[in-house]
TrEMBL record:
It comes from Kutzneria chonburiensis. InterPro entries: PPM-type-like_dom_sf (IPR036457). The lineage of its organism: Bacteria, Bacillati, Actinomycetota, Actinomycetes, Pseudonocardiales. This is Protein phosphatase 2C-like protein. SUPFAM superfamilies: PP2C-like (SSF81606).
Length: 265
């Protein structure tokens, strides 16, 4: 069994708002913290980095240690544990309270379980076919005509925010444990899954923004070298600093990739 992990901030001098980890007990987690607008209040005295550094380890612990619980219940518990660490100091009902996208993967001899919330990406090689396991709700929201019209305008962020963790919108892990029930979850026989790649959207932009290839190509690149994947993204970002050729949210984004080989080819 081989694993590889890379998690790097978009700018070397900035704190990484992603979190990625693999447990030797058979679990992996990738979180991507949602960056609030620079002028925005969040109701929280903590940074987004602090938040993912609480939620991520809590979720990895739960996933690896509590095999009697579903991954959704593990996420609910991890959200609850994180909430308890700052509910006395912070207003967690604030709509910009720290929050993150989530991918969790867990395996034992018999099965592979997964959980996906918001726009981080999980790819599984299932019997030789690379299969994306995605939470499509954010894409659905941003693809709506009224959202496309205002994309990359100042009002866009506000419009998007009003749909986050709201009915008919999309969901991220913040302070409400109930959101765990909204995650995309499932399980497969262990023998059907050869390998897995989990990543934040700062890495999946290799495919989704820069069009270096499709999910199968991206999987192949991650398997070859997670560093090579992120290097290619960084080079493309640097070549288009004004985001003209490749429209995207952040010019350079935090990027995290986890590769897990569960069985030999
Ligand atoms: Zn706080």
């Amino acid at each position: 069994m081989r694993t590889e992990l890379l998690s790097v901030p978009g700018e070397p001098a900035r704190a990484n708002e992603d979190f990625a980890a693999i447990s030797p007990l058979g679990a992996a987690v990738v979180l991507d913290g949602v960056t609030p607008p620079p002028d925005g209040q969040t109701g929280c005295v903590h940074t987004v980095t602090w938040f993912v550094q609480q939620l991520g380890p809590a979720l990895l612990d739960q996933a690896a240690g509590r095999r009697d619980q579903s991954l959704a219940d593990c996420l609910a518990d991890a959200i609850g544990q994180t909430k308890a660490k700052h509910e006395d100091t912070c207003d967690l009902s604030h709509r910009r309270t720290p929050q993150a996208t989530v991918v969790a993967l867990r395996w034992d001899e018999k099965r592979v379980e997964y959980l996906v919330l918001s726009d981080s990406v999980l790819l599984l090689d299932i019997e030789g076919t690379v299969t994306p396991l995605l939470d499509g709700r954010l894409d659905e929201v941003t693809g709506r005509p009224e959202m496309r019209e205002i994309r990359y305008t100042p009002g866009y962020f506000d419009a998007l925010e009003s749909l986050r963790n709201a009915d008919g919108g999309f969901y991220t892990a913040a302070a409400d444990a109930e959101v765990a029930k909204r995650a995309v979850t499932g399980q497969l026989p262990r023998n059907d899954v050869r390998a897995a790649v989990a990543m934040s959207d700062g890495a999946s932009r290799w495919s989704e923004v820069f069009h270096f290839g499709d999910w199968t190509d991206l999987f192949g690149q991650a398997e070859k070298s997670v560093e090579g994947l992120v290097d290619a993204v960084r080079a493309a970002e640097t070549a288009d600093p004004d985001r003209k050729d490749f429209p995207r949210g952040k010019a350079r984004d935090d990027a995290s990739v986890v590769f897990i080989e569960l069985a030999d080819r």
